[in-house]
């Protein structure tokens, strides 16, 4: 048996209601989806209490990020700014779009250095991207910090807040309620995490209306398939599954944090569905722990790809998965 605790997926899997809807809709797979996915756009606008003209949906957040780089930045002229380390897709998409990505280091405790970030912004900066809660640290910025950042940017610069994990932090960490007073802010969200639909590739953004309009104009037709749209509609309507997921993650997050600390590990405080940690000084290294867990059938994320070779990230699993991970980790560390 292999237990995957590396990709921040929903530990409960797919909502039973979503599975039922997809089975019913499977016979419609030969049909093209309705252009512009109006049903999902309307549902998202209603769910968040925003104008439908602000909503853009795409084939995962990947498509949203890709189009923002292409629409907002002229290659060789404009630049984008983000923190380092950051979600690996930002540098990749910036490079594909021919846009310089400037990166400010996080503080030593992995909290956000907003003054440092602002030092990289100039009159040619058209995008500033902040992930909150952040990946891989799990730290979240306050609404006040994000609003202040938005207010300090040049008028032509768009602040994009990637809120892929926001449901695990809480609404009080989102700029959603302040969008009307912050005309240069866009929020990105996904159905991959709390909704358990990572394999369906459904991302969306809440944007200034003019930018949303541009994205719809250049988006590839039918990029969100008909089954994905039906799954998203069903997931959005399933509040019971969503709340159950959040409850499980918050409980598991506390358990993993407390237990790893009792083993002597350094654990960052997380407001997401994963924990970033490193092994105690003098104990086996992270490479050994990662390899030994893998040998026992548990996959967690080594963070060398984030240029953090001394750290690991573990996704919150089910109660059983968390217990097994902790038992094996304790055994390997000799704690």
From TrEMBL:
Co-factor(s): pyridoxal 5'-phosphate
EC main group: transferase
Limits of the Aminotransferase class I/classII large domain: 2-326
UniProt keyword annotation of Iron-sulfur present: no
CDD domains on file: AAT_like (cd00609)
Pathway assigned in UniProt: Amino-acid biosynthesis; L-histidine biosynthesis; L-histidine from 5-phospho-alpha-D-ribose 1-diphosphate: step 7/9
The protein's Enzyme Commission number: 2.6.1.9
Keywords in alphabetical order: Aminotransferase, Pyridoxal phosphate, Transferase
GO function term, MF aspect, one: histidinol-phosphate transaminase activity
SUPFAM superfamilies (UniProt xref): PLP-dependent transferases
Catalytic activity: L-histidinol phosphate + 2-oxoglutarate = 3-(imidazol-4-yl)-2-oxopropyl phosphate + L-glutamate
Keyword Kinase belongs to the record: no
Gene3D superfamilies: Aspartate Aminotransferase, domain 1, Type I PLP-dependent aspartate aminotransferase-like (Major domain)
Tree of life domain: Bacteria
GO biological process entries: L-histidine biosynthetic process
InterPro entries: Aminotransferase_I/II_large, HisP_aminotrans, HistidinolP_aminotransfase, PyrdxlP-dep_Trfase, PyrdxlP-dep_Trfase_major, PyrdxlP-dep_Trfase_small
Subunit structure: Homodimer.
Family statement: Belongs to the class-II pyridoxal-phosphate-dependent aminotransferase family. Histidinol-phosphate aminotransferase subfamily.
Alphabetized HAMAP family for the sequence: HisC_aminotrans_2
NCBIfam families: hisC (TIGR01141)
Protein name in UniProt: histidinol-phosphate transaminase
Gene (name only): hisC
């Amino acid at each position: 048996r292999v237990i995957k605790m590396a990709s921040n997926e929903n530990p409960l899997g797919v909502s039973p209601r979503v599975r039922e809807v997809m089975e019913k809709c499977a016979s419609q797979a030969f049909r093209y989806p309705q252009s512009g996915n109006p049903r999902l756009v309307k549902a998202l606008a209603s769910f968040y209490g925003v104008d439908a003209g602000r909503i853009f949906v795409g084939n995962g957040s990947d498509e949203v990020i890709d189009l923002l780089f292409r629409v907002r930045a002229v290659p060789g002229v404009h630049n984008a700014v983000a923190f380092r380390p950051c979600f690996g897709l930002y540098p990749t998409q910036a490079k594909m779009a021919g846009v310089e990505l400037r990166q400010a280091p996080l503080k030593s405790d992995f909290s956000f250095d907003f003054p440092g970030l602002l030092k990289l912004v100039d009159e040619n900066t058209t995008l500033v991207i902040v992930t909150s809660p952040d990946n891989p640290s799990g730290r979240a910025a306050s609404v006040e910090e994000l609003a202040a950042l938005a207010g300090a940017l040049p008028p032509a610069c768009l602040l994009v807040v990637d809120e892929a994990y926001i449901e695990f932090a809480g609404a009080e960490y989102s700029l959603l309620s302040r969008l009307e007073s912050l005309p240069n802010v866009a929020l990105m969200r996904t159905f991959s995490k709390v909704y358990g639909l990572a394999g369906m590739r459904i991302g969306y953004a809440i944007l200034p209306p003019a930018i949303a309009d541009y994205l719809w104009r250049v988006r590839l037709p039918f990029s969100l398939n008909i089954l994905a749209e039906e799954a998203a509609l069903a997931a959005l309507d399933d509040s019971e599954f969503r709340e159950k997921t959040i409850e499980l993650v918050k409980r598991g997050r506390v358990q993993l944090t407390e237990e790893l600390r009792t083993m002597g590990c350094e654990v960052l405080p997380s407001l997401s569905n994963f924990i970033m940690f490193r092994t105690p000084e003098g104990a086996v290294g992270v490479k050994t722990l990662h390899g030994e867990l893998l040998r026992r059938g548990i996959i967690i994320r080594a963070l060398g790809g984030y240029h953090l070779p001394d750290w690991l990230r573990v996704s919150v699993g089910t109660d059983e998965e968390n217990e097994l991970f902790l038992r094996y980790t304790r055994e390997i560390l000799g704690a």
